[in-house]
Amino acid sequence: MASAGSVVVHLRHFLRSALAGLRASPLPAALAVLTIATTLVLGGAFGLLVRSMQDVLARVGAEARITAYLAADVDAAAAQALAERARALEGVAAVETVSAARAAERFRAGSPERAALLDALGESPLTGSLEIALAPGRRDAAGVARLAQELSTLPGVDEVSDAGDWVEGYGRTIGVMRAVGSGLALVLAAAALVLVASTIRLGLYARRNEIEILTLVGAGRAFVATPFLLEGALEGLAGGLVALAVLFGLWRALLPSVAGGLEPLLGGASLRFLAPGEMALVVAVGAVLGALGAALSVAGGLRR
């Protein structure tokens, strides 16, 4: 087993070799860093938007209500009996009974025009209703539609209103955006891998004599390959840090101007920057991309 001292010596050697490789080919390394950073910036921007939309969907789901409007001849006792039957349905978290008089009060409180309309009609046409809150596991479009169908079969329920279409459409939009962002990120990630591999290949060629000497004195493939893998990881790490800086700068600079335009899409929710764990993930993904690109180059270069 290697001693702690030899491990430190090896690590220093690997780091010095990796930094020497970066210094030997600064332009290709910079291009690799910028490509990885661009990949992560676009992926991070899409991630921020999709996450905000998912937050909206979760909030709407938590606040969503299915309203079952009762027939005009349903009295208070019958409405309470219907409420008990609704509570027994699977996926129902709570049921609130709203009388016709309370529905009229709500309508009046909405605006002076509404109050004037009711006064002009003389008698309120509004009927009582049941407002049903959904359990967490039934807040998707399918759960909303299924529960609405069950409620519509209850005797005395005249009409059922729900937000299932909105939830389904919004969820579909999130899926499309996630697919577009993933496809674009994959294309850019492939370009980043090619550039990192090209950078490392240049280093392999420039240090071929050193590699031959190491091989002759008994160095294994892992020992020879590690500095190049570390070099790629450092490029990816730098790309991740650059991406975070760019994302934060764009977030601070563009948020005031785009917040209003995104408000209808986000349902009034405020955009928030990446959490510490998400920022660490961006940097880690950059390092992995760099190491993978280096591994592709080393796997081919050391076989020759």
Shape: elongated
- The H/E string reads HHEHEHHEHEHHHH
Largest sheet: 4 strands, antiparallel
Mean pLDDT rating: 77
Total number of strands? 4
Low-confidence stretches: none
Overview features:
304 residues, Alpha-Beta Plaits, four-stranded antiparallel sheet, 10 helices, single chain
Question: Can you summarize this structure?
Answer:
This protein has helices at residues 4-24, 26-63, 76-87, 100-110, 112-121, 141-152, 164-206, 208-216, 221-266, 276-301; strands at residues 65-70, 92-98, 129-134, 157-161. The protein has 304 residues and is α+β, with helices and mostly antiparallel strands.
Walk me through what this model shows.
This protein is α+β, with helices and mostly antiparallel strands and 304 residues long. It has two domains: 10-59 and 168-301, no CATH class; 65-162, Alpha-Beta Plaits, CATH 3.30.70. It is built from ten helices and four strands; from the N terminus they run ααβαβααβαβαααα. It is elongated and about 100 Å long.
Secondary-structure map with pairings?
Layout lengths: L3 H21 L1 H38 L1 E6 L5 H12 L4 E7 L1 H11 L1 H10 L7 E6 L6 H12 L4 E5 L2 H43 L1 H9 L4 H46 L9 H26 L3
Antiparallel strand pairs: 1-3, 1-4, 2-3
Helix pairs in contact: 1-9, 2-7, 2-9, 2-10, 4-5, 6-7, 7-9, 7-10, 9-10
